[in-house]
């Protein structure tokens, strides 16, 4: 009887050990599964984070490209970060006419009567505008050819991307201040009949004309008060007929909206 009891106790003890070992094995397996699943979860979280980061980066790049394309040669959308945007040039030309032009008028009284002086000063502005347009066009062609390593005999077959074109315009605007003295000297070499005491007036004309020329697209100035009658205001008197133009009208681009009305003298 004692032997039987001992066998039963031994069996019971053995079963308990087996059950315990099985439980421990199950616990170990579960812990391993938990660790594995946690690792898989962490990997998935990292993949999701990486994908989200890639998505955000792509969206940023797409937004940047879309913004560049939208702003590039689209003057209807103002780039408020540009200190020489068209709206600022309107302020510049207004100050030029109200202040610098008046000073230049007083210094040009030896040119004749009021009409002759006005025509003389307008001719200077017109010469500045034509010179800046031509210089800008030549510079653009040279820069694009050099940047793209294009040959001169392939004129018109090369073009910068919208982003590169915008960057080129920004560089020209940023370097304009340092370039102005050279622009003035070169202009003087081709326009030799300008009085030395009109330097301030000429420099101001060149400045606003240069920024207008390098704008994308280039801005435009109108000098015909008869064809563009609504775009001019009277100088000192009105009338049915244009006697002479005093100051040009400024447009956002050729055939574009007017930004600043010109000035003309009228007669009956």
TrEMBL record:
InterPro entries: MIEAP_C. It comes from the Eukaryota. Residues 20-68 form a coiled coil. Keywords: Coiled coil, Hydrolase. Residues 85-264 form the Mitochondria-eating protein C-terminal domain. It is an enzyme of class 3 (hydrolase). It holds the Pfam family MIEAP. One of its GO terms (molecular function) is phosphatidylinositol-4,5-bisphosphate phospholipase C activity. Its EC number is 3.1.4.11. The keyword Hydrolase applies. This is PLCB. It comes from Mytilus edulis.
């Amino acid at each position: 009887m004692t032997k039987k009891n001992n066998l039963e106790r031994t069996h019971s003890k053995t079963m308990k050990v087996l059950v315990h070992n099985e439980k421990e094995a199950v616990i170990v397996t579960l812990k391993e599964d938990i660790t594995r699943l946690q690792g898989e979860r962490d990997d998935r979280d990292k993949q999701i984070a990486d994908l989200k980061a890639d998505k955000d980066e792509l969206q940023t790049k797409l937004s940047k490209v879309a913004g560049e394309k939208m702003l590039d040669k689209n003057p209807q959308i103002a780039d408020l970060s540009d200190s020489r945007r068209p709206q600022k040039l309107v302020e510049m030309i207004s100050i030029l006419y109200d202040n610098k032009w008046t000073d230049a008028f007083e210094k040009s009284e030896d040119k004749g009567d009021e009409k002759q002086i006005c025509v003389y000063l307008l001719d200077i502005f017109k010469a500045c505008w034509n010179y800046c347009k031509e210089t800008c066009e030549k510079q653009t062609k040279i820069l694009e050819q050099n940047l793209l390593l294009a040959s001169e005999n392939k004129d018109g077959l090369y073009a910068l991307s919208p982003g590169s074109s915008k960057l080129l315009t920004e560089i020209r605007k940023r370097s304009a201040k340092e370039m102005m003295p050279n622009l003035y000297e070169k202009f003087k070499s081709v326009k030799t009949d300008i009085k030395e005491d009109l330097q301030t007036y000429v420099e101001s004309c060149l400045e606003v004309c240069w920024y207008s020329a390098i704008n994308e697209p280039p801005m435009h100035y109108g000098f015909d008060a008869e064809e563009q009658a609504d775009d001019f205001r009277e100088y000192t008197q009105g009338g049915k007929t244009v006697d002479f133009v005093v100051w040009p009208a400024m447009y956002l681009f050729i055939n574009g909206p007017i930004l600043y009305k010109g000035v003309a003298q009228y007669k009956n």
